[in-house]
Structure formats: structure tokens, C-alpha cells
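Figure 6 in text form: structure in, sequence out.
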């Protein structure tokens, strides 16, 4: 798997997960537990991982979703 992005913003991460799920792209969100252990002060961002072959399609879907979001 390859890293698609990392962020501390829970709203943005929710948006990304929704876009990927709607596109049928499997993903993992990593570092949830570590971020919670450090008190969620932003020192450890959460990572969204996708399969290497899905990375270009994931980026394309996120870009298209960001353009249509108002």
C-alpha cells in the first residue's frame, strides 16, 4: 500500500474516506490509536493508504470531488 495523504483534520479525513468509498477504492486509515494516545494535539497525523494500483484513480477522484464541492 502507498500513502495517499496525511492529515490531522477529522472533517477532511471523513470527506476523503467518503470519496474513496463512493469510488469503490479500498483504503486503510492508519495512526488513529497513536494520535489518540498523544492527546490529539496534532503531533501525529492520520494517514490514508491505498493500493499502489489505485493511487492514480484515488488522486483523480479526490481532485474531481474537490472541484465540485461548494
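Output sequence:
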Amino acid at each position: 500500500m502507498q500513502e495517499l495523504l496525511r492529515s490531522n483534520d477529522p472533517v477532511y479525513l471523513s470527506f476523503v474516506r467518503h470519496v474513496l468509498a463512493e469510488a469503490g477504492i479500498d483504503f486503510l486509515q492508519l495512526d488513529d490509536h497513536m494520535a489518540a494516545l498523544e492527546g490529539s494535539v496534532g503531533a501525529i497525523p492520520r494517514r490514508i493508504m491505498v493500493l499502489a494500483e489505485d493511487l492514480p484513480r484515488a488522486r483523480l477522484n479526490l481532485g474531481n470531488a474537490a472541484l465540485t464541492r461548494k
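Caption detail: The first strand starts at residue 2 and ends at 7.
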